[in-house]
């Protein structure tokens, strides 16, 4: 299998961490897509993913799975070992909910700020500066909800480390990289961030 | 169990159709949330869902699952019968990918148009008219990808009806309701739309 990715893109990192947690990252050929050179918009890459995004997983039968979440779902079903999407019906639904809250809230706000209020990846896509700046305020609302959840739970979706933590870690590190926040104002998020950052998979 | 919903909201409809496909809709108490009266922003509702959205599932133990997708995941794990999220690793990943493409593409574009370029649900949330109007053009890009996918597949994620079809159906009906498009320009989507609309669950 091949994983088309870039080292810094938060969505690619989500997939790498998930696969590393499953112990399968060494089985993959990693191929870097040069976003700065517009390689993701080439005809060759669009044939792999019409949405022009990374990551993309190429299976051995030549088919493609796009979307970090869907690629993670593939490895969850493929492998035995710990279940990062949960086991029981309630656990699976709760993890899915917090994964979505981290992704549609924290990662989305940060990504929209990056693409609309900064130079982004320097491409020619539509920019709406006011929209991008508005996402800064939205990010803070989402973080307040995460902080509250982590008051009574060691991990984002409850007692166990899950894909929700992977999404929040990559989202938060992206926001920190953009200087959109400091964790000083969030003691619970700060404690959680330190802990999950120490897992070996975080370096993936 | 209780499902807090509104009849017209596309995300609530996604959950109802999914539960109807599982044959479990009669087991639920349906409770209407009056969005027009701001009931979703009341302290009582925010205690159920800090994101102030429908649907919300209340489990018999008093806990809450929000997000149409997460609620569907709960019923997928809970019930036997056909798997609307797929069976094999590849099938599950492919369905997840097309579900996300329908949701993050078609439903997101339409929802953003609704909330930013129209009066939406008449609340006081931030509006960015230019952003809303831009989503019309984005919607057409996403529909072109769906049309191409349906050229060679009976259903959105391939050979079997899945949660991806439920998401696309609710997204498309929402866009049609807003007069954002006509299906005349999309023969494959039109064929698919007729077929999935005829399933009894579509009336849920």
From TrEMBL, chains A, B:
The entry's keywords:
Transferase
An MF annotation (GO) of this entry = transferase activity
Fetch the Pfam families from UniProt: GST_C, GST_N_2
Start and end residues of each GST N-terminal domain? 1-83
Q: Matching PANTHER family, A to Z?
A: GLUTATHIONE S-TRANSFERASE GSTA, GLUTATHIONE S-TRANSFERASE-RELATED
Q: What organism does this protein naturally occur in?
A: Lentisphaera araneosa HTCC2155
| Keyword Oxidoreductase in record | no
Name the SUPFAM superfamilies for this protein: GST C-terminal domain-like (SSF47616), Thioredoxin-like (SSF52833)
Return the InterPro entries for the record.
Glutathione-S-Trfase_C-like (IPR010987), Glutathione-S-Trfase_C_sf (IPR036282), Glutathione_S-Trfase (IPR040079), Glutathione_S-Trfase_N (IPR004045), GST_C (IPR004046), Gtt2-like_N (IPR034345), Thioredoxin-like_sf (IPR036249)
The protein's name is Glutathione S-transferase-like protein
């Amino acid at each position: 299998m091949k994983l088309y990715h870039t080292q810094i893109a938060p969505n690619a990192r989500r997939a790498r961490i998930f696969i590393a947690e499953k112990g399968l990252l060494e089985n993959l050929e990693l191929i870097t897509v040069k976003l700065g050179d517009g390689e993701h918009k080439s005809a060759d890459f669009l044939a792999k993913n019409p949405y022009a995004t990374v990551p993309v997983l190429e299976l051995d039968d030549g088919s493609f799975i796009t979307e970090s979440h869907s690629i993670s779902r593939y490895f969850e079903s493929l492998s035995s070992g710990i279940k990062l999407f949960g086991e029981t019906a309630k656990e699976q639904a709760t993890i899915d909910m917090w994964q979505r809250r981290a992704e549609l809230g924290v990662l989305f706000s940060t990504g929209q700020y990056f693409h609309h209020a900064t130079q982004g990846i320097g491409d020619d896509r539509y920019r709406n500066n006011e929209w991008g700046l508005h996402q800064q305020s939205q990010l803070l609302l989402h973080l307040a909800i995460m902080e509250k959840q982590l008051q009574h739970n060691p991990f984002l979706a409850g007692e166990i480390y899950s894909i929700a933590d992977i999404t929040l870690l990559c989202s938060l590190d992206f926001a920190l990289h953009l200087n959109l926040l400091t964790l000083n104002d969030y003691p619970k998020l700060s404690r959680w961030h330190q802990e999950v950052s120490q897992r070996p998979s975080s370096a993936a």
